[in-house]
Specification:
- By secondary structure, the protein is an alpha+beta fold.
- Helices cover 19% and strands 26% of the residues.
- Strands 5, 6, 7, 8, 9, 12, 13, 14 and 15 form a 9-stranded mixed β-sheet that branches.
- The protein starts with a strand and ends with a helix.
């Protein structure tokens, strides 16, 4: 058993953030799993990982071995947009997580792929077979999956060399005035809100986002967005930095929306197939709920 005592200076910190700082020998996911399973008690009572410290609590942590996460086949509907001997392109719906993580083990894209295709690239490990790149949980659209290790390495090289073209559709709050724009501010993890990324610190990983206006509405603007890099939450962070957050994206400052998701869709991807050597473009149609929402604005 590990015994900790929160100090006054710890007041306001989330429980999981505090534990990660005090117990750096354990990963954040492991600590969060212990919190979820009741192995962390605050003044004798289990709390959520988002619990905010007051600065005087006694905290007990009962370490345990975390069962290794591994993907398992699961029968979940999939819309396949393209496939060849090396690559599968899937139309991921909003709400589907790409692979299992802390607290989410079923209904993932990987689970569905394993059920349908059995064997995928193992380069990403047992938790992420076939996964070369990702989409946020509430972003819909086309995502590529590698069938073989060779295909995985080939595609990863294309992404690193910016040889993959990724086009998104985003509806943002407010009227974006310039018809075109380019954002190059680097992105890093937010120093206090760990579920967020930020571009305000002027440091972090290089990121490139370009956009052009497709249509202006009274209080919204529909954009076509091209990203030259694939940083976590990149489009959402960059557009929010312009004071035009993606509709429905409350994490980055958007007001409440009846949409039930955020309006960000990976519409098109172009890559070179490792199987044929030819350039391939795959397009994912705009989901019905997003099309319907646009029609309400017209």
């Amino acid at each position: 058993m590990i015994h900790l005592e929160a100090a006054r200076t710890d007041a306001g910190q989330r429980l999981d953030t505090y534990l990660h700082a005090r117990l750096p020998e354990y990963s954040r996911s492991r600590l969060q799993e212990w919190i979820h399973s009741g192995r962390v008690r605050v003044d004798g009572t289990p709390q959520k990982r988002s619990y905010q410290l007051r600065g005087s609590e006694q905290i007990q942590v009962e370490p345990a071995e975390l069962a290794p996460l591994r993907a398992t086949p699961e029968e979940v509907p999939l819309e396949i947009l393209y496939e060849d001997a090396a690559v599968i392109a899937v139309n991921k719906p909003a709400g589907m997580v790409v692979h299992a993580g802390a607290g989410i083990h079923s209904g993932t894209l990987v689970n569905a792929l394993l059920h349908r295709f059995k064997n995928l690239s193992g380069v990403g490990g047992e938790l992420r077979p076939g996964i070369v790149h990702r989409l946020d949980r509430f972003t819909s659209g086309v995502i590529l999956v590698a069938r073989t290790d060779a295909a995985h390495r080939d595609l990863a090289g294309q992404f690193a060399a910016r040889g993959v073209e990724k086009i998104y559709l985003a509806l943002v709050n407010g009227r974006v005035k310039p018809d075109r724009g380019r954002i190059e501010t680097p992105i890093t993890r937010h120093p206090t809100r760990r579920t967020r990324m930020t571009s305000r610190l002027k440091r972090g990983r290089a990121a490139l986002t370009e956009y052009q206006v497709l249509r202006r509405f009274d209080k919204f603007t529909l954009l076509e967005v091209h990203i030259g890099t694939g940083r976590t939450h990149q489009i959402r962070v960059h557009l929010s930095s312009l004071h035009h957050p993606v509709v429905g994206d409350k994490l980055y400052g958007a007001p409440e929306s009846e949409l039930g998701r955020y309006f960000l869709h990976a519409q098109r991807i172009t890559f070179t197939s490792p199987a044929s050597g030819e350039r391939v473009t795959v397009t994912a149609p705009l989901p019905g709920e997003l099309q319907d929402y646009l029609e309400t604005l017209a």
